[in-house]
Amino acid sequence: MRVVLRFVHFVALVACTVATSVIWDGRAPFNLTNADLETSTGPYLTLPSQLQHNHSVVKGAENATHYTHLLGRSKLPTPLWDDGRLPIIPREQVISVTIDNSSVFVPGGGPPQYGFRRTDLIAAVDGEHTELITRLEQNTTIFHFSIQKDELRPLNYSHEYQIVFIEPNDGSHVFGIQLGSPFTDPTGPLPAPNAHSFKVLDHALNVLFSTPFTPNAWHNFAIEVNWNNRTLAVWYSLDAELLRLVKATTPNPTAAAGPDGQGDFHIALLKLPIVNPADSPTDQSDVVHHGIQEGTTEGLFYSGVFVEDAAQGISRGLDVVVLE
């Protein structure tokens, strides 16, 4: 049974608030600077791979701020996490994540991923992310994030984009958010009929929820992951609307149990290729290293990114909490 609590602020009275347990907060405070992105200071792993221990940052060869920018007060974030007081004062900066033709990731010990163009922000605390995985991925936790179109850097919906996911070491995704036309070999009609819609996928790539990616709006998501029972639930809203349950708890049985099913939380823009008919059949099926990429600059805006423990309820926004 779910119980909804609403906490209303009254002028000249002390506001009553009951906060859920935020395990990790990726909402960029205003004292976080673009210079901090070059050193993995704050909530995201961005430091160039040669300076990190035993892992690579997922981006191209340019500096972090070539691909990722904090927008200060120039753009408003999702209003969902404002405190309800007037005047409304944003609590966070919007994050711009972009790709261009230089966005070729070179994994440690592997060849360049020429099939992809990608920029990933990985949840961390001042560069540390391994211990954070354990804290984020036990019992039941909720992964919040909001996404808006970058109208000046549009996506090419003939391609598939993987934009938010948890990635264990086997390269699968516990859940994923997809845009565009799913990669197929051979290539089908493009763009696909649902290319301009978000698709929330489970580990087996089943679509749990889909909704159009409309412009000039914040699309708010919360993915509820029960790590013990291996289930997922999906919450969604637009702008200042409270999150609503759009997919009730459903099994996610193909996800591995325990540490094998845990991985980094990615806020990303990962663009898959289109099959190149000039490639050999073997290369055509190698989505990571081959295929057609236009090399254009494309982007998305993110805000409202955080992870909470469901033991104290699920935040729906504007100080409304659902108790399980």
What do these coordinates show?
Helices cover 6% and strands 36% of the residues. It has 324 residues and is mainly β. Strands 2, 4, 5, 7, 12, 13, 14 and 16 form an 8-stranded antiparallel beta sheet that branches. The protein has a 7-stranded antiparallel beta sheet with strand order 3-6-15-8-9-10-11. The chain has a 3-stranded antiparallel beta sheet with strand order 1-18-17, with no helix packed on it. Strand 12 and strand 13 form a beta hairpin.
Percent of residues in helices comes to under 10%
Q: Which residues form runs of ≥5 with pLDDT under 50?
A: 5-18, 49-56
Give the biggest sheet: 8 strands, antiparallel
**Overall form:** globular
Roughly what is the average pLDDT, rounded to an integer? Answer: 90
Number of helices: 4
As a percent range, the share of strand residues is 35-45%
* Number of beta strands: 18
Computed CA radius of gyration, to the nearest angstrom: 19 Å
Helix and strand run: EEHEHEEEHEEEEEEEEEHEEE
Q: First CA to last CA: what distance?
A: 6 Å
Q: Which structural class best describes the helix and strand composition?
A: mainly beta
